[in-house]
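can u pls check wat happens w/ iron/sulfur cluster
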Amino acid sequence: MVKEIDVLIIGAGPAGLATAIRLKQRLNAEKKDASVVVIDKEPKLGFHNLSGGVFEAGCLDELVPGWREGEESFFKQTVEIQNDELYFLLPKAAFKIPHLVVPKLMNHIGDYAVSVSRMAIWLGTVAQNLGVEIYLGFSAKELLIEDGRVKGVKLMDLGLDRDGKKKSNFLQGETVHAKVTVLCDGSHGVLSEQLSKLLPPAKNPQVYSIGVKQLIKLPPESAFGNNRAIHTLGFPNRFDVFGGGFMYSMPDNMIAIGLILGLDWPYGDLNEQQELEVFKTHPLIARFLKDGKIVAAGANTIPEGGYYSIPKLFTNGALLVGDSAGFVNMEKIKGIHYAIRGGMSAADAILDALTANDFTEKILAKYEINLKESGILKELYHARNFRQGFKYGLPIGMPLSQIQSFIPFPISIEEDYKGTKKGRRLNRKKQDSMDRAQFVALSGSSHDENQPSHVAIPDPELCQQCGKFYAYSCTHFCPGEVYRQKDGKIVLSPSNCLHCQTCIIKCPFHNITWTPPEGGEGPRFKYL
Ligand SMILES: Cc1cc2nc3c(=O)[nH]c(=O)nc-3n(C[C@H](O)[C@H](O)[C@H](O)COP(=O)(O)OP(=O)(O)OC[C@H]3O[C@@H](n4cnc5c(N)ncnc54)[C@H](O)[C@@H]3O)c2cc1C
Ligand code: SF4
Ligand code: SF4
């Protein structure tokens, strides 16, 4: 069956929901009728939305005026950052970096710590109240492209067994035709990747970090206190691993703690879930975590290449918004407000297209003009060489990051998988505090095991070489422990998958394929 709609939005994160809200608000105000449909592969809103969560909230005053008012408002679930500290960590010591030398953009005072999964739940309600249709549990499988124009998407079939045979509950994936398809499927989204491959390439390839995060409930008298944000550089990272740690106050005596690591790390055996446990042993951090109880955990990638890695953002019948467009500024470590402002810019361009009944890129090009006017592209341009400088390691990356905006050309960067170096090992001792099985349990991730595997290794022979040179990397870097090595072969446990996309990005041989599983399956992030 083919469904015909006006505007189809893939992904119910901040980007997709902001697009839907703004578009429906403007359609309603102008008394115009058009169907605005959001689909997400997860069975509930917020299940696959994860962020550190320090948020520049001004965009919400524009998108949902009055959002701060009322006892039940989303604002009540936020914590204002009043105390912001940056530390450099050595294994047993912490040095506070004076505010005077911290770049202004890394200042988070006046921002709000939020749970982006809670934000998605709330934005979903706002959207539905305006008349947006949201369908959950539907995975978009592929883009439909005809005569150089995106015509919609094909959804995944439901009810196939592990051999690909139809089960009694089989439902063929629908074909959805739309005048405009907006891709908001997040970091390294399957559909946005399909589209990006057809568009002119950006100056640099996209590069990514993996962020691992836990939510910890602390006793009321905890040493961390309220309204506080801490960022760290150094330990547990060596100088050739980009990234750092964070801790933020959350409501109800909770803190968000996490580690963000650039996926161009050289070590074949780096396991980011274990690195977070190592981070938590640092005396500065361990002191804050005393008597804390971990209540949730998860991981996701972050597109961190910045301005020069942003692909062309529009084509006939389609737009890219949010993480799928690469709207993240690593100088600020922020993407949520760009996702929201990007969605608003996309909505305004789509309204013009609906009014003109013209969905070609000639009209949709207004999206880029709107992005410029909204200030997003200016901010991203300011940080245009920030991430690239760190490819030379922290001692060169730090000073370079201070002068990066004066460098008159793009510093080039390579895809992350090329960063893994033959024979390089971290050789970390296993941490007993938590393993990946416990981490997966706290993420709530689950899949029906009797369905076709959504991860595959096309050439198992290459894994032999990988074992020799790169320590079977996927058995270390996958936060869900989907890959295990047995007798030189990789055994898969796809039901553990957190949908973070690290494996496609980091396998040194580009030897992993990942397709969305049946809709309704995957992580069940809570409060992340
Ligand atoms: C560890 C970490 C820390 C961060 N810290 C901060 C911070 O402090 N401040 C900040 O501003 N930003 C931060 N960011 C970045 C920020 O979280 C993102 O930029 C932002 O959430 C992106 O929103 P989005 O809507 O583009 O994508 P997402 O929130 O990822 O939404 C994508 C949606 O698409 C759905 N989807 C994907 N594929 C399909 C498919 N095939 N079919 C149907 N649905 C699909 C997913 O289920 C998901 O709901 C952080 C990110 C991470 C990972
Ligand atoms: S799938 Fe990739 S990362 Fe995993 S062992 Fe094989 S080649 Fe290495
Ligand atoms: S299989 Fe891939 S997408 Fe799934 S958790 Fe592991 S690295 Fe992430």
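The chain has 15 helices and 24 strands.
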